[in-house]
Amino acid sequence: MDIEQKQAELIDHFVKKASALKGTILDPVIIEATSHPSLFAFSEILAVPSVVELGGTENSGYLDVLRLFAHGTWTDYKNNAGCLPELIPDQVLKLKQLTVLTLAETNKVLPYDQLMQELDVTNVRELEDFLINECMYAGIVRGKLDQLRRCFEVQFAAGRDLRPGQLGNMLQTLSNWLATSENLLVSIQEKIKWADTMSELDKKHRKDVEDRVEDVKKSLSLKFLGYVGRCVLLTLWQKLHTVSRPTLTSEGTRRSTLSLVE
Question: Strand, coil or helix: what is 97?
Answer without folding.
Answer: helix
